[in-house]
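Give me the fold.
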Amino acid sequence: MWIAELWRYPVKSMAGERLQHADVRRDGIAGDRIVHVEAEHGRVITARTHPALLGHHAVLGKNGEPVIDGRPWTSPEVVRDVEVAAGAGARLVRFDGLRRFDVLPLLVATDGTVAAFGHDGRRLRPNIVIGGVTGLAERDWEGQKLRGGSTLIQLRDLRQRCVMTTFDPDTLAQDVSVLRKIHREFDGRLALNASVLEPGTVAVGDPVTLIDDAGSPRSGEAAPED
């Protein structure tokens, strides 16, 4: 198995950026979801209720601050766009505490599950995609650990999926049958919630080892590496 994809989402509920390498800290990939959208009274707004947010693309600038659609996240143009997408009074707020994550700091998917899913893997919004995995093997990984690069990750449980999976990442066209399929064929759950046991660095192509509860590497679950 190997690291096939790395993703970061500097602004919660907006499209993110594909990385070649990442600094993985206790609170996940550095720069992930460090800005979110709030309503006037402080309620966090996500694409579950305002899917137009998914149509904006955020990357992390060289100064460590998000850039949205090519503009600084604090620019008047971005402020205007956020109000259009999320409603009057909506604003961007920078917050890098652990409470910025819905569940845990990382979401890990596998190429086998993405293939079985049958749709663009971006709909699942993973941070890490593991390549070389046979079929739905990830469904047996709850409670196990993954070693990739110098990082050790604890896999907790499968993620319960929501309406965000129904929106096409490029066109934002909604297809509710996507979520129906997830519930019908995957018990409503795809990809794994994960935390960081040992911070480090990870890069696309790094080999990945799955470690069982006894601390031993597990084999037989992945196709041979190229």
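DSSP finds three helices and 17 strands in the chain.
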